[in-house]
Amino acid sequence: MAETAQEVKFESYDQLYTPRQREIAERARQMFINGYHCSEAIIRVFNEEYDLRFTKPMIRMATGLGGGMGKAKCSCGTVTTGSIILSAIYGRYDMHDDDSLAFDLARELNERFKEQFRVCCCAALTRSTNWGHPNHIAACSEYVYVAALILADIMDRCRKDLGGFPARSGRRSVKKKESSRGRIENGSGKEDKEQRSAVL
Asked: What are the C-alpha distances in Å from 180 to residues 110, 131, 165, 194?
């Protein structure tokens, strides 16, 4: 059977990522297919693969994001959960800390997902499927896979650029800069390494 244009496009997109990133994404996809919500699959796989040491309550936080926030079919649970993971690593604790990196990375995840699927709205993404039926599982498993690819790519890049993930405790406070909403140059996640010097 001849490949469709969408299948060819997806295969080409898939090859942009490393074998390890594709392996992580496939783990997330299989976890979703086997019964976890899209959001749960993302947080569980990334917690294990990146040794994030999330506690059980932190893992459970992702449950309500499944189905576009409790089956409300709003923002896709893969994207919102990815944003939570990025914020857990690069977000701020104090209102005077810098929030620009977490904002930039969450926006990048959202925009790259929409580049592939045009939207990140669960209702639009699943419009042509029957909820809970095989065509819904097949469609959403692809969304899980692509979101996981993008998230893995962002996290790998940031870990490389910043010399690791910020330490889980004793992290130095990062004071907000004047242009705290500035976009990361070329999506490279650049930030003063001295501000993130406490790393694993």
From this structure: 19, 40, 20, 17
Lowest mean pLDDT among 114-123, 148-157, 168-177: 168-177
Per the structure, the complete domain to which residue 65 belongs is given by 5-165+179-184
CB 68 within 8 A of CB 74: yes
Number of domains in the chain: 1
Q: What is the rounded CA–CA span in Å between residue 49 and residue 180?
A: 30
96-135 tens-digit pLDDT: 999 999 999 999 999 999 999 999 999 999 999 998 899 9
128 φ/ψ angles, rounded to the nearest 5 degrees: -90, 10
Is 192 part of a structural domain of the chain?
no
Amino acid at 153: D
CA–CA separation, 46 vs 50, rounded Å? 6
Residue 195 predicted with pLDDT over 80 = no
Partners of residue 55 on adjacent β-strands: none
Q: What is the DSSP letter of 52?
A: -
138 lies in some domain: yes
On the question of pLDDT at 92 being above 90, the answer is: yes
By the 8 A CB rule, do 193 and 163 touch? yes
Q: What is the mean pLDDT of the chain?
A: 83
Cβ-Cβ contacts under 8 Å for 67 (sequence gap 6 or more): 37, 38, 73, 77, 122
